Amino acid sequence: MPIVQATFWTIIGGxxxxxxxxxxxxxxxxxxxxxxxxxxxxxxxxxxIKNVKIKLLPKExxxxxxxLVLLIIPFITMLNNQDAVNYNPGLTLHDTISSVISLYxxxxxxxxxxxxxxTHEDQLNLFRLIVVACLIYSxxxxxxxxxxxxxxxxxxxxxxxxxxxxxxxxxxxxxVFLGHGLLVAMFVAVSLGAAAILLKQKIKVFSIHPAVTxxxxxxxxxxxxxxxxxxxxxxxxxxxxxxxxxxxxxxxLALINVVILYPLLSMAGFFPHQELVQLAMxxxxxxxxxxxxxxxxxxxxLEHVQKKIFFGWGGWGRSRLEGSITDGYWIITLGQYGLLxxxxxxxxxxxxxxxxxxxxSLFLDRNKKILLLSHALIVTIIMVDQLPNAxxxxxxxxxIGALLGRVRGVNLEVAxxxxx
Length: 420
Description:
This protein is mainly alpha-helical and 420 residues long. It is 69% helix and 1% strand. Among the domains are: 128-242, no CATH class; 244-420, no CATH class. The chain contains 15 helices and two strands. A two-stranded antiparallel ribbon has the order 1-2. The longest helix has 31 residues, at 329-359. It is globular.
């Protein structure tokens, strides 16, 4: 396969079909699972099969600085967490090295996407592949919607999470091999955005008219029975299809700034938590109670985090309180690695998005501009979902890296034209 296609299927194939909650736990390194194993395999494939020298760190730019900061933070966190907390041991050098490796494996898809996706064709091909992947995955999704989540148990012999959590609105959410209906729904929501891009670009997949694919994904997302993902998917669809480019830019800018400022807004009491809970209550009391519970846990955890606000509490559950639930990826990151760790992690997507908004003005070709802005919106929507949930997977990091890679490609194209 071409390298972009091969890399995509290696990473997304592992994510979609390997078992959830299973890991190979070698000594001295973090457990290897369905997220990390495919990424390492993709890196090996790029370097030693395709002979493309993927650098282990970006050679320059803000992204290099953010990654280096992220990899240094666990050492400072260790020095600041030598004492035992809530029966959890103090951090050791072994914990720190394991954390650094774990963090690097999480951002490795970003590094790969940054170096592989350069041209408009690469970018368009990436979204075409996402649509193909979702079309394939829609078969087991629709099966489980009708028959209940059974495939993980049938294939791998166990169900990785609470079965009752998948019961929604008088039916079941599909989990397939992802372990939770939230993850399936978010993948479908992003795929709906990719299908909207193909509709805008008038590109067929499997000779299917793109409008048919969009309608099918909307139905699939509806049957996923996850309100948050449904709202995000519909927002993606509406913005990509109908918003003019200047409105699309302002939408992306507003949302990504809310994401990066969310911890500070929450600590200062400026975020409208109560209003959102009331809105959810009006829609469905059960969903409203669920959202209220999440916000309550966030508030309790934020008070705990502020005791070590800059570098966090580290691992071993030290950032958690007894009985607390950590749903959002942002609060998990903030609790473990502090505000600087949060800014370094979320800063990668923020930097990619802001750069995409800036270079979009360099395009004369409207289709290329729409594609870049739509890609930025998809990345932003993924980051918005990290506030209530933790859906950040290797495939999402690949998309974030690909966005910044395309930005770099645009800059090179402009520089080349200027030289000519």
